Recover the amino acids of this structure.
């Protein structure tokens, strides 16, 4: 079952912050985050492994809460270049190695 | 240049006419995967391969076939395409850590397929 992302879309002004959530009904081994700009292929942002680690990419960071089976992506002081659709991909503890399920995506629009 | 290539980039075909979309990577990655992307549904995994001659089903394998005879190539075959396979297809590759942990995936540019 696909993870659930929220919100579906968010509009920000430059400099504002946003949080994107990714929730699963099953126990997760890892969460993968990607960003896709219009007309382009998805681009890797970061992977979080179970253990609650946080990671960062530019001013984008993420956390992983194993108990809640969810991950959150934090866009801090957003820039115009952050516009795009963000996808989380989940790797289940009960799943097969290599099988990845992506959420439906969160569209982010950053305006001047 | 390290990259994943797909061909063709665009394809319009008719129902039932067999087609193959090629995918090739030059990074010596063990892992390769095919996804389809449809509006509102995100990326859905079709098939994946952990190494040569090792393939497995993703979430939406019906109507597709794959093979992994060489490490660099992972073609997607539609034996009898139908209109519900109209979609944007992405191939991706990734190195694997010890134990099979998936790392960063590198995506190809995509193939837009229309089945009439």
């Amino acid at each position: 079952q696909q993870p659930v992302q929220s919100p579906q879309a968010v509009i920000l002004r430059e400099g504002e912050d946003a949080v994107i959530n990714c929730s699963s009904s099953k126990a997760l081994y890892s969460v993968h985050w990607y960003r896709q700009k219009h007309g382009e292929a998805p681009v890797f942002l970061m992977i979080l492994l179970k253990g609650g680690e946080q990671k960062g990419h530019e001013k984008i960071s993420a956390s992983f809460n194993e108990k809640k089976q969810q991950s959150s992506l934090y866009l801090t002081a957003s820039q115009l270049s952050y516009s795009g659709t963000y996808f989380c991909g989940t790797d289940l503890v009960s799943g097969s190695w290599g099988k990845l399920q992506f959420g439906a995506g969160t569209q982010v629009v950053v305006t001047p | 240049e390290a990259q994943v290539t797909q061909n063709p980039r665009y394809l319009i075909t008719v129902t039932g006419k067999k087609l193959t979309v090629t995918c090739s990577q030059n990074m010596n990655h063990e892992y390769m995967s095919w996804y389809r992307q449809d509006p509102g549904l995100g990326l859905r995994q079709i098939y994946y391969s952990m190494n040569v001659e090792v393939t497995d089903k993703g979430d939406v394998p019906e109507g597709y076939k794959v093979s992994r005879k060489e490490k660099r190539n992972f073609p997607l075959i539609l034996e009898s395409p139908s209109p519900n396979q109209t979609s944007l297809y992405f191939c991706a590759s990734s190195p694997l850590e010890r134990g099979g942990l998936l790392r960063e995936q590198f995506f190809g540019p995509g193939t837009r397929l229309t089945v009439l």
Observations:
- Residues 44 and 50 of chain A are 18 Å apart (CA to CA).
